[in-house]
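Reviewers of the previous submission asked for a worked example of the structure-prediction workflow described in the proposal, so we include one complete record here. The input consisted solely of the amino acid sequence. No template or homolog information was supplied to the procedure at any stage.
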Amino acid sequence: KKENNKKKKEDYMYTTIYNGNVKLKDTEGKYIFWDIDGTLAPFRFNDHVCDPLGTHHAMSVKEIEEGIFLYREPSKHMQRVVRECKAKEQFILGHCHEPKEISDKHLWVDKYYPQIKKRFFIDDEVSKAGVILDYCKEQKIDLSDVIFIDDSHAIIKEAEKKGIKAYHISSFLDWFE
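From that input alone, the workflow returned the following structure tokens.
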């Protein structure tokens, strides 16, 4: 029985060495779904990463009403990646909680990532992987042509388990090297 366990472990070993970095060749001609908070925009608001009032998201309702998201500076690095990646099509896929947050994020994307026209702003209860799968099925897009980038390990793992090639944003740190 120990020999069977050893064989299974060996079968799982990878023979290809992969350094984890995404390069232009990995994105060219792909349908790319970008998360917004923590990926294209920094994830820190008024010097906090969770609502001090205890709600389930980073920004308080008061901060959202005051337009806090519009004060985000985009990642210059990611602006360049998005501009130069040669994707077939790019999408924003982000969780939102309030109508004002959605409208502000549309304005923000228009200003900093104007080339991304299709946007999915969804409630936290909605699976990002599910949105991607539904869209690809509807549009007859092969999942082998899809890439999803997020900063949440749980969300990335769910996507991978459902057959979507997913990357953590950190995979883009060495894009230009």
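The chain has a mean pLDDT of 87. We consider this example representative of the routine output the project will generate in years two and three.
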